[in-house]
Design a protein that fits this description.
Chain B: It holds the Pfam family Proton_antipo_N. The complex is a heterodimer of chains A (469) and B (640). Chain A is mostly helical and 469 residues long. Chain A contains 21 helices and 2 strands. Chain A has one domain. Among the domains of chain B are: 265 residues, no CATH class; 55 residues; 34 residues. Classes of the chains: A mainly alpha (469), B mainly alpha (640).
Chain lengths: 469, 640
């Protein structure tokens, strides 16, 4: 029993162990930031590798906690994203005073996400969600000297508090109308009860806030812009990915009886999100804000996939998030390097970037191609499967509008590529030297962008896992 | 040996790859050796295959290489068919092709090494494509070769790509061929749609299930393809312009490859054509009209290659006449003899052009007989062959087609015989003005005149021998019983039509021969006496001008097809695209940009506003879910 229990909680245990190691290191003798970060990255790498082995399925603590192969995979994707972000923030953290705290905050957040993904009970789910939000607000304020950073943190905490209250309200109503908080029990008691639908809308709004679905997305741009790049990339990839995973599994299992209600809402929200994300992204000049809005549009596409409500839906979402980890983090990696070394964050400064930084230019271009969905990058296959899943219900108008929006997104992604390669600039961003850690991280991302689409085994594997869900 | 059929196209492909990739590094002699060697190797294999096929009781063999397109039950294999027809064409293509390659090594020797390599690479690819076309066991493989020869002709006609006129000629050839290709493709699709297979064996076995309409349409569409490739009215104008390429290329296009593809394809599909008498009539009439029209044009041309080009168009017309009246063997026979004497004529012309320092106008030639004895004799033999003088090869093949035409319809025969007379006339006009009389060129040119080197004369001699004796494989029934070796050889692949030729009695056949030979002889004597004394140097006038300007067909095409299309293009570009499509696209772009600017106001930076908006949207969502029934029609429209 005891061994089983540890094995089921393996990934959570790993995180806790790492957090404790970091605390002890902090208490011990002073060491340089670089040696500290080497240790952290080694630990995270070990975490990713071990995460893939010896996984079991099972339920613990009266269905509070459950795990299966799909959840393990989802957590591994998040682990991978964490590792890449950590390696990319090397330059930024090198001179920072509070390196251990940064990792402890982010890893605590990850722990919250893991519990949230594995939650089998609405309260457990809520606890995980809170654990994944509160440290994040502190992390957003990590550039203590910058006012914008503090502003971002305040906005994040205020709006999070509001969305949490929505969630709690929803949860209490669900409990009131069904008499249970356990995921496997709730569907049995759901029906056409208006109060249940009301509760569901509250829950949906709370979750929509977390994944910045329009019109609950407004905090995103301000927070993304103000927070340090590492935190922004964590927010837009890891944090969003985790909530998306939960979102899919909650919709498909717990609220399946209300599918009639959420299908229409999902359909409206997704179109709204894509269109608003696109309209905002088209006029942004700050690179981080740009990526924030383009990631809103990406979430809109994910909702398209979810609306298909089939095994294709969940498989395509997990698959897309995996690709999104690689492509978005590659873009963020380049921006993080350029921003921490030269201080440039605006797109117009990237004109003529290719002349001085050919390697970074190609990495950024491939990442943007993948985000836009240009074949043969993985992003194309990701979007293709999302639209394919969304088309499962035969609502081709919907898919057509989504596909037309992809064309609009081409415009703003390719605009940057044009600036990099074709625009003349007398004072381009000077040559940026890439240290080893970020270099490895970027190459990993590009390998993912180029390979994931072609290794059909990956999608087949995810699909086979989601069929068992 | 038939199992080794894949080697025949493989060798030229290897030659193409090595010469094409190594054109900058290999030496000229190596390129020439390789270019000729691979074709010779193919020829040797072809001879082996032919000897096997020639044995009695040989059954057609399918050599399966791999599955080309395979979707569920639908399967197009990449396989070759070795039978009497393909083995004969293999011999012609590789044999004549080899001689032309050999000739080219000397003719093209002044080119830069890099271009020399490019030339031989194209030449090898050309032969490869033609072999693929002939060997393929289904229409799709044939189509690959069909497109391949089209591409190679484009590349070779425009070989001297620095001259824009040559590029236009290449483009014209390509476009004309593409028009025909559409017909071919549609026919293949039609067959596929009706039968679900494109393999010859299956198609011909199931051909009886076609309705009359289907089979007529398919054969007509195939004929459209043949019109393009084999230069028939109305798609013939590319072939005379194709003279822009180097002369050996013309020889290759006119004799061994390319233009014979259309004949081959129709003979291959003879089962279908025999089922479609309407198409046959069209083929015969188009063929005859082409033969006559081209012959009249050739009367007044002054460019040595142009005359030969129109004579090719005219001879191809004969072949189609033969196909149209069901004389498939006769058509193949004429393809073969024509390959010999037309290759010879072109190579001879090349030899003359070579000696004249790239001069092609026969008005400034004359008296070349004494400077270039071998070229002169071989050219004369070829002229006699094409004019249909017995016992040269052209006589037998042309006679067979004319006899079949007579049996079919006497008018066809009459025009055919007159055309034969015209042929004899313009060929001897060419011969006399080039080789007899006194030299009319500049002093420099006269000083430079010489016989060509042996790499050029040997192919001439070999082809001359073939032109003389090539006809003996098809001795008509009237001369000797059962002596038509070719007909006997091809009989397994050609269906016997009800009204097979040789139903004529012997005396009628003798009479027909006598008339056509007499016409030819009269024409030759007339041309000889007229031009040996007083060469035709003045510009043509009156009716002659009409002929010299090729009946103004090119101009007519420009007027009724090209110009309206260009005008339509201009309209689409200036009006539809600029104000219509561009306006729409730019309008959408401006609209999106404007919306983006406006919607940014939502992003105020005030958390209170954000939360207010969230609350409002939730209220909206609640209203939508609970009171949204009225909206349902709209939603249903979008979300089904």
């Amino acid at each position: 029993m005891s061994i089983d229990f540890l094995m089921l909680l393996k990934q959570e245990m790993m995180l806790i162990v790492i957090i404790f190691i970091l605390m002890f290191l902090k208490l011990g003798k002073d060491r340089s930031n670089e040696s500290y970060m080497t240790i952290v990255n080694a630990l995270l790498l070990a975490n990713v590798v071990i995460g893939f082995f010896g996984n079991e399925e099972g339920v613990l603590f009266a269905e509070m906690f459950r795990t299966n192969k799909l959840m393990v995979l989802e957590k591994n994707i998040l682990n991978l994203g964490m590792l890449i972000i950590s390696m990319q923030s090397f330059v930024w953290l090198k001179t920072h005073k509070h390196v251990p705290e940064f990792y402890i905050l982010l890893l605590s957040t990850m722990l919250g996400m893991f519990f949230m993904i594995s939650a089998g009970n609405l309260l457990m789910f809520y606890l995980g969600l809170e654990l994944s939000t509160i440290p994040l607000a502190a992390a957003a304020n990590f550039d203590l000297a910058k006012r914008r950073s503090s502003e971002a943190a305040m906005k994040l905490i205020f709006s999070s508090a509001f969305s949490s209250s929505l969630l709690l309200f929803g949860i209490s109503l669900i409990y009131g109308t069904t008499g249970t908080l356990i995921f496997s029990q709730i569907p049995l008691h759901l029906g056409n009860n208006p109060l249940q639908i009301f509760a569901f809308i509250l829950l949906l709004a709370g979750l929509a806030f977390k994944i910045s679905v329009a019109p609950f997305h407004l905090w995103t741009a301000d927070v993304y812009e103000g927070a340090p790049v590492a935190v922004t990339s964590f927010l837009s990839v890891v944090s969003k990915g985790a909530v998306l995973f939960v979102f899919v599994s909650v919709l498909y299992t717990v609220f399946k009886p209300l599918a009639g209600a959420w299908y229409n809402m999902l359909f409206i929200l997704s179109l709204l999100t894509i269109i608003i994300g696109n309209l905002f992204a088209i006029r942004q000049d700050n690179f981080k804000r740009f990526l924030a809005f383009s990631s809103i549009a990406q979430v809109g596409f994910i909702l398209v996939g979810i609306s298909g409500s089939s095994t294709f839906g969940s498989a395509s979402v997990v698959y897309f998030v995996l690709i999104y980890v690689f492509s978005n983090l590659a873009a963020f990696g380049v921006i993080s390097l350029v921003s921490s070394i030269t201080g440039n964050e605006s797109i117009s400064n990237y004109r003529g970037f290719y002349k001085t930084n050919p390697v970074l230019s190609w990495i950024l271009t491939l990442a943007l191609f993948s985000l836009a969905g240009v074949p043969p990058t993985a992003g194309f296959f990701g979007k293709f499967f999302l639209l394919f899943a969304g088309a499962g219900k035969g609502n081709y108008w919907f898919i057509t509008i989504a596909a037309l929006n992809m064309i609009i997104s081409f415009y703003y992604y390719l605009r940057i590529v044009k600036a990099i390669f074709m625009d003349e600039n007398d004072h381009p961003i000077p040559r940026v030297l890439i240290p080893l850690m970020p270099r490895l991280a970027l190459y990993t991302c590009i390998a993912g962008v180029l390979a994931v689409g072609f290794i059909s085994y990956i999608y087949d594997y995810i699909h086979s896992l989601s069929r068992g869900m | 040996m038939a199992k080794l059929a894949y080697l025949v196209p493989l060798f030229p492909l290897i030659g193409f790859l090595i010469n094409g990739l190594g054109r900058k590094t290999l030496s000229k002699s190596l390129i020439g050796l390789l270019g000729c060697g691979v074709i010779l190797a193919s020829f040797v294999v072809s001879v082996g295959i032919f000897l096997q096929v020639k044995q009695d009781g040989f059954q057609p063999q399918i050599v399966h290489l791999f599955d080309f397109i395979k979707v569920q039950s639908f399967n197009i294999p990449f396989s070759f068919q070795v039978d009497q027809l393909s083995s004969l064409f293999l011999l012609i293509i590789t044999g004549v092709g080899f001689l032309i390659h050999l000739y080219s090594t000397s003719y093209m020797h002044n080119e830069e090494t890099q271009h020399y390599g490019r030339y031989f690479a194209y030449l090898n690819l050309f032969v490869f494509s033609m072999l693929l076309l002939v060997l393929g066991a289904n229409y799709v493989i044939m189509f690959i070769g069909w497109e391949g020869v089209g591409l190679c002709s484009y590349l070779l006609i425009g070989y001297w790509f620095k001259n824009n006129n040559y590029n236009y000629a290449a483009r014209k050839a390509f476009v004309m061929n593409r028009i025909g290709d559409v017909g071919f493709l549609l026919a293949v699709f039609w067959i596929l749609a009706k039968l679900g297979t494109v393999s010859y064996g299956d198609v011909f076995a199931k051909a009886s299930t076609f309705s009359t309409f289907d089979v007529t349409a398919i054969t007509m569409l195939l004929f459209v393809g043949a019109m393009g490739k084999s230069a028939q009215i109305p798609l013939y104008t590319w072939l005379p312009d194709a003279m822009a390429g180097p002369t050996p290329v013309s020889a290759l296009i006119h004799a061994a490859t390319m233009v014979t593809a259309g004949i081959y394809m129709i003979v291959r599909s003879n089962v279908l054509y025999t089922m479609a008498p309407t198409t046959q009539a069209v083929v015969a009439i188009v063929g005859l009209a082409t033969a006559f029209l081209a012959a009249t044009i050739a009367l007044k041309q002054n460019d040595i290659k142009k005359v030969l080009a129109y004579s090719t168009v005219s001879q191809l017309g004969y072949m189609f006449l033969g196909l149209g009246v069901g004389a498939y063997t006769g058509a193949v026979f004429h393809v073969m003899t024509h390959a010999f004497f037309k290759a010879l004529l072109f190579l001879g012309a090349g030899s003359v052009i070579h000696a004249m320092g790239n001069e092609q106008d026969i008005r400034v030639m004359g008296g070349l007989k004494k400077y270039m004895p071998i070229t002169h004799i071989t050219f004369l033999l070829a002229c006699l062959a094409i004019s249909g003088i017995p016992p040269f090869s052209g006589f037998f093949s042309k006679d067979e087609i004319l006899a079949a035409a007579y049996e079919h319809n006497k008018v066809l025969w009459l025009i055919g015989a007159i055309t034969a007379g015209l042929t004899a006339f313009y060929m001897f006009r060419l011969y006399v003005m080039t080789f007899l009389g006194g030299f009319r060129g500049t002093h420099d040119q006269e000083h430079h005149l010489h016989e060509s080197p042996s790499a050029m004369t040997i192919p001439l001699i070999v082809l001359a021998i073939l032109s003389v004796i090539g006809g003996f494989v098809g001795i008509p029934e009237a001369f000797a019983h059962n002596a038509h070796a070719l007909e006997h050889f091809l009989s397994p692949v050609i269906v016997k039509s009800a009204d097979a030729a040789h139903g004529l009695d012997t005396s009628t056949e003798y009479m027909l021969m006598a008339i056509s030979v007499a016409l030819a002889v009269i024409a030759i004597i007339y041309a000889w006496t007229r031009f040996s004394k007083k060469p035709e140097i003045a510009e043509a006038e009156g009716a002659g001008k009409l002929l010299a300007n090729r009946w103004y067909v090119d101009e007519l095409y420009d007027k009724i097809i090209a110009n309206p299309l260009i005008a339509l293009g201009g309209f689409l570009k200036n009006v539809v695209e600029k104000s219509g499509i561009d306006g729409l696209v730019n309008g959408v772009g401006r609209g999106v940009n404007y919306a983006g600017r406006q919607i940014r106001l939502m992003q105020s930076g005030q958390v209170g506003n954000y939360i207010l908006l969230m609350v409002l949207s939730m209220v909206l969502m609640i209203i939508l879910v609970f009171y949204g029934n009225n909206l349902n029609p709209v939603l249903k429209y979008f979300s089904k």
